Amino acid sequence: MFNILNIFRNSLLDILNKYDIQLIKVFCLGTFQKLFIVTEKD
């Protein structure tokens, strides 16, 4: 499960880097931080 999330995150970050939309980047990174914190507890 973690590997799938990691691949998804990396591909999403690639897309965001191409468009370079700072606000969306920060929002998505913050969301993933919360997601990974929850995942690590499991």
Category from helices, strands and their pairing: mainly alpha
Number of strands: 0
> Main beta sheet: strand number and arrangement?
none
In whole angstroms, the N-to-C terminal distance is: 11 Å
Number of domains: 1
Number of helices: 2
Binned strand content? under 5%
Helix content: over 70%
From the alpha-carbon coordinates, what is the Rg to the nearest angstrom?
Answer: 11 Å
Shape: flat
**String of helices and strands:** HH
Round the mean pLDDT to the nearest integer and report it: 76
Low-pLDDT sequence parts: none
Give an account of the 3D structure.
With 42 residues, the chain is mostly helical. It has one domain (4-39). Helices cover 90% and strands 0% of the residues. The chain has two helices and no strands. Helix 1 (2-19) packs antiparallel against helix 2. The longest helix is centred in the C-terminal third of the chain and has 20 residues, at 22-41. The termini are close together. The mean pLDDT is 76.
Structure characteristics:
single chain, 42 residues, 90% helix, mainly alpha
Topology:
Elements: H1 2-19, H2 22-41
Helix pairs in contact: 1-2
Task: Write a concise synopsis of the structure shown.
By secondary structure, the protein is an all-alpha fold. The chain is 90% helix and 0% strand.
